[in-house]
Amino acid sequence: MTLTPSQLAAFDRDGYLIIPSALPPSTVSSLLAETTRLLSILPLESHPLTRFQTGDDTGEGHTGDAYFLASASNISYFFEEEAFDPSNPTTLTKPIPLAVNKIGHYLHALSPPFSHLLSPDADIQAKPADVARSLGFTDPRCLQSMVILKQPEIGGAVPPHQDSTFLYTDPPSAVGFWYALEDATLENGCLTFLPGSHKWSPIERRLVRKEGGGTVMVENNGANFPRGEGYGVEDEKGCEYVPGEVKAGSLVLIHGNLLHKSERNTSKKGRIIYTFHIIEGGESYVYDEKNWLQPPEGGFTKLY
Protein backbone atom coordinates (compact mmCIF):
# COMPACT_ATOMS: atom_id res chain seq x y z
CA MET A 1 0.00 0.00 0.00
CA THR A 2 1.36 3.36 -1.04
CA LEU A 3 -0.15 6.59 0.22
CA THR A 4 -2.97 7.97 -1.91
CA PRO A 5 -2.89 11.49 -3.35
CA SER A 6 -5.42 12.62 -0.74
CA GLN A 7 -3.33 11.13 2.09
CA LEU A 8 -0.19 12.81 0.77
CA ALA A 9 -2.04 16.11 0.51
CA ALA A 10 -3.29 15.77 4.10
CA PHE A 11 0.21 14.98 5.39
CA ASP A 12 1.64 17.95 3.50
CA ARG A 13 -1.08 20.24 4.86
CA ASP A 14 -1.24 19.06 8.47
CA GLY A 15 2.18 17.53 9.14
CA TYR A 16 0.65 14.28 10.41
CA LEU A 17 -1.51 11.50 9.02
CA ILE A 18 -3.58 8.86 10.83
CA ILE A 19 -3.91 5.50 9.05
CA PRO A 20 -6.45 3.29 10.87
CA SER A 21 -5.96 -0.50 10.97
CA ALA A 22 -2.41 -0.33 9.67
CA LEU A 23 -1.56 -3.36 11.84
CA PRO A 24 -3.82 -6.44 11.96
CA PRO A 25 -4.89 -7.65 15.43
CA SER A 26 -2.47 -10.60 15.21
CA THR A 27 0.49 -8.25 14.78
CA VAL A 28 -0.68 -6.01 17.60
CA SER A 29 -0.94 -9.07 19.87
CA SER A 30 2.53 -10.23 18.82
CA LEU A 31 4.10 -6.86 19.62
CA LEU A 32 2.34 -6.64 22.98
CA ALA A 33 3.55 -10.15 23.81
CA GLU A 34 7.10 -9.16 22.90
CA THR A 35 6.80 -6.08 25.10
CA THR A 36 5.70 -8.30 27.99
CA ARG A 37 8.67 -10.60 27.35
CA LEU A 38 11.14 -7.74 27.27
CA LEU A 39 9.79 -6.37 30.55
CA SER A 40 10.12 -9.82 32.12
CA ILE A 41 13.88 -9.99 31.41
CA LEU A 42 14.80 -6.47 32.58
CA PRO A 43 18.00 -6.93 34.65
CA LEU A 44 16.95 -4.80 37.62
CA GLU A 45 19.93 -5.78 39.81
CA SER A 46 22.44 -4.33 37.32
CA HIS A 47 20.30 -1.53 35.94
CA PRO A 48 21.41 2.07 36.68
CA LEU A 49 17.72 2.97 37.30
CA THR A 50 17.85 5.64 34.61
CA ARG A 51 14.67 7.68 34.49
CA PHE A 52 13.43 9.18 31.26
CA GLN A 53 13.28 12.96 31.60
CA THR A 54 12.51 15.48 28.87
CA GLY A 55 14.19 18.41 30.64
CA ASP A 56 13.41 22.10 30.27
CA ASP A 57 13.56 24.37 27.23
CA THR A 58 17.35 24.56 27.42
CA GLY A 59 17.72 20.80 27.49
CA GLU A 60 18.85 20.93 31.09
CA GLY A 61 17.65 17.84 32.91
CA HIS A 62 17.11 15.74 29.76
CA THR A 63 18.19 12.16 30.21
CA GLY A 64 21.81 11.90 29.09
CA ASP A 65 23.78 9.42 31.15
CA ALA A 66 26.12 6.84 29.60
CA TYR A 67 23.37 4.21 29.67
CA PHE A 68 21.10 6.47 27.59
CA LEU A 69 23.85 7.43 25.12
CA ALA A 70 24.72 3.77 24.50
CA SER A 71 21.12 2.77 23.79
CA ALA A 72 21.36 3.33 20.01
CA SER A 73 22.83 -0.14 19.59
CA ASN A 74 21.02 -2.19 22.24
CA ILE A 75 17.73 -2.66 24.06
CA SER A 76 17.63 -0.42 27.12
CA TYR A 77 14.99 0.40 29.71
CA PHE A 78 14.03 3.79 31.14
CA PHE A 79 11.77 4.31 34.14
CA GLU A 80 8.95 6.72 34.93
CA GLU A 81 10.09 9.43 37.33
CA GLU A 82 7.16 8.82 39.65
CA ALA A 83 7.72 5.05 39.84
CA PHE A 84 10.20 5.54 42.71
CA ASP A 85 9.72 6.08 46.43
CA PRO A 86 10.40 9.81 47.09
CA SER A 87 12.11 8.94 50.36
CA ASN A 88 14.26 6.22 48.76
CA PRO A 89 15.13 7.00 45.12
CA THR A 90 16.44 3.48 44.47
CA THR A 91 13.20 1.75 45.48
CA LEU A 92 10.37 1.18 43.00
CA THR A 93 6.81 1.62 44.25
CA LYS A 94 5.38 -0.15 41.20
CA PRO A 95 6.04 -3.57 39.66
CA ILE A 96 8.39 -3.38 36.67
CA PRO A 97 5.63 -3.66 34.00
CA LEU A 98 3.98 -0.57 35.54
CA ALA A 99 7.21 1.34 36.22
CA VAL A 100 8.98 1.43 32.83
CA ASN A 101 8.48 4.48 30.63
CA LYS A 102 10.39 3.39 27.54
CA ILE A 103 12.23 0.47 25.93
CA GLY A 104 14.68 1.45 23.17
CA HIS A 105 16.37 2.30 20.93
CA TYR A 106 17.44 -0.68 18.74
CA LEU A 107 14.30 -2.80 18.78
CA HIS A 108 14.03 -2.57 15.00
CA ALA A 109 17.22 -4.66 14.69
CA LEU A 110 17.42 -6.80 17.83
CA SER A 111 13.80 -7.82 18.46
CA PRO A 112 12.42 -10.11 15.70
CA PRO A 113 8.73 -9.14 16.16
CA PHE A 114 9.58 -5.45 15.90
CA SER A 115 12.22 -5.79 13.19
CA HIS A 116 9.73 -7.74 11.06
CA LEU A 117 7.69 -4.55 10.59
CA LEU A 118 10.49 -3.26 8.34
CA SER A 119 10.49 -6.43 6.26
CA PRO A 120 8.96 -6.43 2.75
CA ASP A 121 7.28 -9.68 3.79
CA ALA A 122 5.42 -8.11 6.74
CA ASP A 123 1.68 -8.75 6.53
CA ILE A 124 0.68 -5.17 7.29
CA GLN A 125 -0.95 -2.22 5.61
CA ALA A 126 1.24 0.78 4.72
CA LYS A 127 4.59 -1.02 4.80
CA PRO A 128 7.28 1.43 5.94
CA ALA A 129 9.32 1.12 2.74
CA ASP A 130 6.24 1.85 0.62
CA VAL A 131 5.32 4.83 2.80
CA ALA A 132 8.87 6.17 2.56
CA ARG A 133 8.76 5.91 -1.23
CA SER A 134 5.42 7.72 -1.27
CA LEU A 135 6.97 10.53 0.79
CA GLY A 136 9.87 10.87 -1.65
CA PHE A 137 12.68 9.24 0.34
CA THR A 138 15.55 7.98 -1.81
CA ASP A 139 17.60 6.23 0.90
CA PRO A 140 15.54 6.03 4.11
CA ARG A 141 17.30 4.81 7.27
CA CYS A 142 15.66 3.73 10.49
CA LEU A 143 17.77 5.23 13.29
CA GLN A 144 15.81 4.66 16.49
CA SER A 145 12.84 2.68 17.75
CA MET A 146 11.11 2.37 21.09
CA VAL A 147 8.12 1.08 22.97
CA ILE A 148 6.61 3.86 25.05
CA LEU A 149 4.41 2.90 27.98
CA LYS A 150 2.24 5.77 29.21
CA GLN A 151 1.68 4.15 32.60
CA PRO A 152 -1.63 4.36 34.51
CA GLU A 153 -1.77 7.26 36.97
CA ILE A 154 1.94 8.15 36.70
CA GLY A 155 2.52 8.43 32.94
CA GLY A 156 4.30 11.76 32.55
CA ALA A 157 3.37 14.56 30.17
CA VAL A 158 5.57 15.18 27.13
CA PRO A 159 5.86 18.91 26.33
CA PRO A 160 5.51 20.35 22.81
CA HIS A 161 8.46 19.27 20.70
CA GLN A 162 9.68 18.54 17.17
CA ASP A 163 11.32 15.19 16.43
CA SER A 164 14.00 16.75 14.22
CA THR A 165 15.31 18.59 17.28
CA PHE A 166 16.49 15.20 18.57
CA LEU A 167 17.13 13.39 15.26
CA TYR A 168 18.63 16.16 13.17
CA THR A 169 19.87 15.96 9.61
CA ASP A 170 20.97 18.98 7.61
CA PRO A 171 18.52 19.69 6.05
CA PRO A 172 15.84 18.18 8.34
CA SER A 173 14.32 14.93 7.06
CA ALA A 174 12.97 12.94 10.03
CA VAL A 175 9.56 11.28 9.89
CA GLY A 176 8.07 9.31 12.78
CA PHE A 177 6.05 6.09 12.44
CA TRP A 178 3.89 5.83 15.58
CA TYR A 179 1.86 2.63 16.06
CA ALA A 180 -0.84 2.36 18.72
CA LEU A 181 -0.68 -1.07 20.39
CA GLU A 182 -3.53 -0.05 22.71
CA ASP A 183 -6.26 2.54 22.25
CA ALA A 184 -4.91 6.07 22.79
CA THR A 185 -7.51 8.47 24.20
CA LEU A 186 -7.71 11.87 25.82
CA GLU A 187 -8.07 10.09 29.17
CA ASN A 188 -4.81 8.15 28.91
CA GLY A 189 -2.66 10.76 27.20
CA CYS A 190 -3.05 10.49 23.43
CA LEU A 191 -0.92 12.62 21.14
CA THR A 192 -2.08 16.11 20.24
CA PHE A 193 -0.83 18.00 17.19
CA LEU A 194 -0.51 21.61 16.05
CA PRO A 195 -1.66 21.18 12.44
CA GLY A 196 0.45 22.95 9.85
CA SER A 197 3.18 23.93 12.32
CA HIS A 198 5.73 21.94 10.29
CA LYS A 199 5.40 24.65 7.64
CA TRP A 200 6.25 27.59 9.90
CA SER A 201 8.03 26.24 12.99
CA PRO A 202 11.80 26.01 12.36
CA ILE A 203 14.24 23.60 13.97
CA GLU A 204 16.04 26.23 16.01
CA ARG A 205 17.84 23.95 18.46
CA ARG A 206 19.34 20.48 18.62
CA LEU A 207 19.93 17.99 21.41
CA VAL A 208 23.61 17.03 21.21
CA ARG A 209 26.24 15.19 23.19
CA LYS A 210 27.99 17.39 25.70
CA GLU A 211 31.75 17.31 25.96
CA GLY A 212 32.63 15.27 29.01
CA GLY A 213 29.32 13.40 29.01
CA GLY A 214 25.61 14.09 29.05
CA THR A 215 23.44 16.03 26.62
CA VAL A 216 22.68 19.69 26.04
CA MET A 217 20.44 21.73 23.75
CA VAL A 218 22.38 24.02 21.39
CA GLU A 219 21.50 26.53 18.68
CA ASN A 220 20.99 24.95 15.27
CA ASN A 221 23.36 26.50 12.75
CA GLY A 222 22.12 24.33 9.89
CA ALA A 223 18.93 24.33 7.84
CA ASN A 224 15.71 24.93 9.80
CA PHE A 225 13.29 23.37 7.31
CA PRO A 226 13.31 20.44 4.86
CA ARG A 227 13.96 21.02 1.20
CA GLY A 228 10.94 21.85 -0.90
CA GLU A 229 8.39 24.57 -1.38
CA GLY A 230 5.94 25.91 1.20
CA TYR A 231 8.24 25.96 4.25
CA GLY A 232 9.07 29.04 6.30
CA VAL A 233 5.65 30.65 5.90
CA GLU A 234 4.38 33.27 8.33
CA ASP A 235 3.80 31.98 11.87
CA GLU A 236 0.12 31.12 12.39
CA LYS A 237 -0.34 31.95 16.06
CA GLY A 238 -4.07 31.21 15.99
CA CYS A 239 -3.66 27.45 15.56
CA GLU A 240 -4.82 25.14 18.34
CA TYR A 241 -3.66 21.65 19.24
CA VAL A 242 -5.84 18.85 17.90
CA PRO A 243 -6.15 15.51 19.74
CA GLY A 244 -5.20 12.35 17.89
CA GLU A 245 -7.33 9.68 19.52
CA VAL A 246 -6.71 6.36 17.76
CA LYS A 247 -7.60 2.70 18.06
CA ALA A 248 -5.04 -0.06 18.56
CA GLY A 249 -3.43 -0.96 15.23
CA SER A 250 -3.48 2.60 13.90
CA LEU A 251 -0.39 4.22 12.41
CA VAL A 252 0.34 7.92 12.82
CA LEU A 253 2.94 9.52 10.55
CA ILE A 254 4.60 12.58 12.10
CA HIS A 255 6.64 15.18 10.21
CA GLY A 256 9.94 16.02 11.93
CA ASN A 257 9.12 19.74 12.15
CA LEU A 258 5.60 19.25 13.52
CA LEU A 259 4.89 20.49 17.03
CA HIS A 260 3.17 17.76 19.04
CA LYS A 261 2.81 16.73 22.67
CA SER A 262 0.94 14.43 25.05
CA GLU A 263 -0.61 15.05 28.44
CA ARG A 264 -0.09 13.19 31.69
CA ASN A 265 -1.98 9.92 32.11
CA THR A 266 -4.00 10.22 35.30
CA SER A 267 -6.40 7.43 34.35
CA LYS A 268 -6.21 3.79 35.41
CA LYS A 269 -5.77 2.67 31.77
CA GLY A 270 -2.27 2.49 30.31
CA ARG A 271 -1.26 3.30 26.75
CA ILE A 272 1.42 1.28 24.97
CA ILE A 273 2.76 2.35 21.58
CA TYR A 274 5.66 1.45 19.30
CA THR A 275 7.44 4.12 17.33
CA PHE A 276 10.44 4.38 15.05
CA HIS A 277 11.91 7.22 13.03
CA ILE A 278 13.47 7.40 9.61
CA ILE A 279 15.81 9.96 8.09
CA GLU A 280 17.13 10.50 4.58
CA GLY A 281 20.51 8.77 4.26
CA GLY A 282 21.61 10.27 0.96
CA GLU A 283 24.99 12.00 0.64
CA SER A 284 23.40 15.45 0.49
CA TYR A 285 21.95 14.99 4.00
CA VAL A 286 24.38 15.40 6.89
CA TYR A 287 24.03 13.44 10.13
CA ASP A 288 26.96 14.53 12.25
CA GLU A 289 28.83 13.44 15.37
CA LYS A 290 27.13 16.11 17.50
CA ASN A 291 23.80 14.29 17.60
CA TRP A 292 23.09 12.50 20.87
CA LEU A 293 22.23 9.28 19.01
CA GLN A 294 25.15 7.91 17.01
CA PRO A 295 25.01 5.09 14.44
CA PRO A 296 25.66 1.52 15.59
CA GLU A 297 28.41 -0.47 13.92
CA GLY A 298 27.38 -0.91 10.31
CA GLY A 299 25.30 2.26 10.25
CA PHE A 300 21.60 2.95 10.50
CA THR A 301 19.15 0.36 9.16
CA LYS A 302 18.22 0.73 5.50
CA LEU A 303 14.58 0.37 4.47
CA TYR A 304 15.57 -0.44 0.88
TrEMBL record:
The keyword Coiled coil does not apply. The keyword Heme does not apply. This is Phytanoyl-CoA dioxygenase. It comes from the Eukaryota. Belongs to the PhyH family. SUPFAM superfamilies: Clavaminate synthase-like. It holds the Pfam family PhyH. One of its GO terms (molecular function) is metal ion binding. Its cofactor is Fe cation. Keywords: Iron, Metal-binding.
